Amino acid sequence: MSRTFGYLRVWTAGQTTETHKQQIAAGGIEIEDYRIMAETVSGSVEAMKRRGFVRLVDRLEPGDTLVVTKMDRLGRNAIDVMATIARLGEMSVRVRSLDLGDADLTSVAGRMTTHILNVVAQFERELLIERTKAGIDRARAQGKRLGRPPVFDAQRRAEVEAGLKKGETISALARRFKTSRQTVQRIRDRHGRVRPVLRTTPRGPIDKE
Questions:
Q1: Pairing of strands 204-206, 199-201
Q2: Are residues 158 and 74 in the same domain?
Q3: What is the average per-residue pLDDT within 159-182?
Q4: Could you tell me if residue 143 is inside a domain?
Q5: All residues at 6 or more sequence positions from 66 whose CB lies less than 8 Å from its CB, including other chains
Q6: Tens digits of per-residue pLDDT, 34-64?
């Protein structure tokens, strides 16, 4: 008797797979909860290197059907998706992606459709990367600063350095300038460890560092 399984993937702990389950139900597909594998893993990880997906594949038998909400859930890129579909096809497992209707992706027609869509998707990704790189190069040529702006300007960094020289602790400076200890430590390390001014007492100098 054939069985139907579902594979759901999200990439951050803050996301939920409930929407994916609803999409499967809306497609008229009934899958018992114990046959649904949901995991949190980056889409950049190959399908057969995902623990949850590997465990699911181990449960599949000839005649079973694997359902995903989108084809990109089956791999990290076009090549990986095709390899996953081919692997499942060799196991005589039918693969269905809701965004492609009821077509069996392991069939000849399904593999052709999948290949065409993946090629287009890969082309779009490469085009986006190329445009992004061109934009960065353009911005650099115009002298624009890229990346996150510095937390402190030159004057505030000088004030932090002055505080270090006077013997103020890193914690005290972080509170005074409303920043993190790491920021103060980076300023100290960037300009060399600043030796504080010694405060003298009748018994001799006291080093606050």
A1: antiparallel
A2: no
A3: 85
A4: no
A5: 5, 6, 7, 56, 60, 88, 93, 94, 95, 96
A6: 999 999 998 889 999 999 999 999 999 999 9
